[in-house]
Amino acid sequence: MATYLPEGYRTQCASAANFHTIASVRDAMLSRQILESRALVCDANHNLIVDLGCMKGMIPREECAIGIREGTTRDIAILSKVNKPVCFRITDVRADEKFRPYALLSRREVQEECKEHYLSSLKPGDIIRGKITHMESFGCFVDIGCGVIALLPIDAISVSRISHPRDRFFTGQNIFTIVRAIEPDGRTSLSHKELLGTWEENAALFSPGETVGGIIRSVESYGVFVELTPNLAGLAECKEGVKVGQHASVFIKSLIPERMKVKLILVDTFDSDEPPAPLSYHLKEGHLDRFIYSPSVSSKTVETVFNLPAAAPAAVCSAGVQRSAT
């Protein structure tokens, strides 16, 4: 929902830094606009000071985020917002001891409204916008609306396995993601690989006989896995000196949809500091009940089903069927 975008998504016209008069600030307060601006300082009392253009705004510590008041959110969540955009609503306009105007703001109020009117309506399979806020080895944390964070586990980022989320994303990146599950405590978990296309859609970008670029994702005793796209990797024979993370040029020997195999020959490998390539999304909006990655001619079915009962196992492998229940 456009009203409850991740922080940093809002247009310039919604930036509170554009306010030029006290009257414009008061009008925004009375209309209860959701605004956004950059946090300039976190003071000694952990209040956030925000640029409102004609004046400063202050988000009191307990209004900085859901959970601060209750003690379930640590103050690092406030400190880490300095020099980043934050959303808020203006709750009052006052004067300080030197009679200078300033505004009281609440980010918590906006987040609670976002959870009540937007996040509570999400269902597994819904495709939504997100922004990467930070990354850990096990996954990345994604702002899915007004600074409310959800986890995207590393194994749900892409079909091609990666060693760390930074292999695919960068902090601050705008992405599309899909709701994987709504936990009993209301937290949202995410997936991403279902938006990057099926085996056939990715394999259609390549032809046997071509030499193309790739990234080394795994070096095993029996071969080297080379990522051609985030949702397609192929296997090449071992080659001395090859390391995970290196870029490569590879010759495509064959594409075998019946076995979901791509056979490659390593031509060259080299180190590179290039950032992750821009993602190409096959889906950017709507809802998925089911995503079938495997070709119809494959002996094994690989699919994600988003509407399985909560009690269903996370993965079922039976009669050649691999199912991810989310």
Estimate the strand proportion.
35-45%
Give the number of DSSP strands.
19
The assembly state of the depicted protein chains is single chain
Q: What does the average pLDDT come to?
A: 91
CATH architecture of the largest domain: Beta Barrel
Task: Record the strand order, biggest sheet.
Answer: 1-2-3-5-4
Task: Indicate the CATH topology of the largest domain.
Answer: OB fold (Dihydrolipoamide Acetyltransferase, E2P)
How many helices? The count is: 4
CATH homologous superfamily assignment of the largest domain = Nucleic acid-binding proteins
Straight-line distance between termini: 22 Å
Computed over alpha carbons, the radius of gyration is: 24 Å
Summed up, what is this model?
This protein is mainly β. It has four helices and 19 strands. The chain folds into four domains: 2-116, OB fold (Dihydrolipoamide Acetyltransferase, E2P) (Beta Barrel); 121-195, Nucleic acid-binding proteins (OB fold (Dihydrolipoamide Acetyltransferase, E2P)); 199-270, OB fold (Dihydrolipoamide Acetyltransferase, E2P) (Beta Barrel); 290-325, no CATH class.
